[in-house]
Design goal:
Structural class: mainly alpha
Number of domains: 2
Number of helices: 12
Strand content: under 5%
Number of strands: 0
InterPro entries: Ferritin-like_SF, RNR-like
Radius of gyration: 19 Å
Protein name: GTP-binding protein LepA
Bound molecules: fe (ii) ion
């Protein structure tokens, strides 16, 4: 019988075989209306380029937080995930420069103090198991956000008539994200089932106090994220004055569906972890406040 680990190993091997990093010379950077495209999507490309390129820092964070990770995790992040994401970043960054924008400003090597403390504690095996669960939850939310964002961006780019970008930049990138999401989801489900009650309690608590939308490390980036939400048309449910969820797509429910099911299923009545919807609402508000400054 196949164990969960066997399934994960097979999934990672398949991702590696079926999705080699996208070669830069496969991309057609032709843009018919650079100014119009830049005005509508330039900042979205910049945000995504930064987040993709920052996987180099994410790998440092993972190895700090998980001093002794399972072999399959190492294989995934070192041999599949990081090489794919870096290419996404390089391609998107090149595209924004073709539009006349400066390259993304990235933080590739600064690991925060909180993570270093977690990493020290994680030398205790039961605590590393808590960190692993937090890592999988972050991975799930991040990759699910990427799947949604690239789908919406692809639709938007097709609308602008920039078919070279849609077909040779966004489409190939968006094909690689669901496999990442699947890895974290399989891992999260399997790992959650092995945790003791105190570990689950700690995961819920730490997740509640540490959740942030993908790529948000400070107030400026929170507003940037809000701008991206607006450009992709997923901000409406979070605007002030509208009843929560009364209009538009509920991004939080989509991003945190499995997290809700695993961590909070016993809290019936809550469709979405409140810290996720709060974070998205704060992003939209930060973007609006910055726009009127
Ligand atoms: Fe990516
Ligand atoms: Fe990804």
């Amino acid at each position: 019988m196949l164990t969960e680990t066997d399934r994960l190993v097979a999934h990672v091997a398949r991702l590696g075989e079926e999705h080699p990093p996208i070669p830069l010379d496969s991309v057609d950077f032709t843009v018919n209306d650079p100014a119009g495209f830049e005005a509508r999507f330039g900042h979205v490309l910049d945000y995504m380029a930064r987040v993709e390129l920052e996987v180099d820092r994410n790998v440092l964070e993972i190895s700090t937080m998980l001093p002794n990770p399972p072999e399959v995790d190492k294989q995934f992040y070192a041999e599949v995930w990081q090489p794919q994401e870096i290419q996404h970043g390089l391609i998107l960054d090149r595209l924004q420069q073709v539009l006349g924008r400066p390259p993304a400003t990235t933080d590739l090597d600064h690991v925060g103090l909180k993570l270093k403390v977690l990493g020290l504690l994680a030398h205790l095996e039961p605590f590393q198991d808590v960190c692993r669960m937090l890592y999988y939850l972050t991975g799930m939310a991040t990759e699910r956000s990427a799947v949604i964002a690239y789908n919406l961006l692809h639709d938007g780019v097709i609308e602008t008539g920039e078919h070279a970008v849609a077909d040779t930049v966004i489409a190939p990138i968006k094909r690689q994200e669901p496999g990442h999401y699947a890895f974290y989801q399989l891992s999260a489900r399997a790992h959650w089932a092995t945790l003791a009650r105190w570990q689950k309690w700690l995961v819920r608590h730490m997740r509640r106090i540490s959740f942030a939308p993908v790529g948000v490390n400070n107030v400026e980036q929170l507003a940037d994220f809000g701008d991206v939400m607006e450009s992709l048309g997923v901000d409406r449910a979070y605007r002030l004055g509208l009843r929560f969820g009364s209009e538009g797509r509920d991004l939080a429910a989509d991003v945190a569906r499995v997290e809700q099911e695993l961590l909070w299923a016993r809290d019936r009545g809550l469709p979405v972890p409140d810290y996720v919807s709060r974070a998205f609402r704060e992003a939209v508000e930060a973007a609006r406040a910055r726009a009127v400054r």
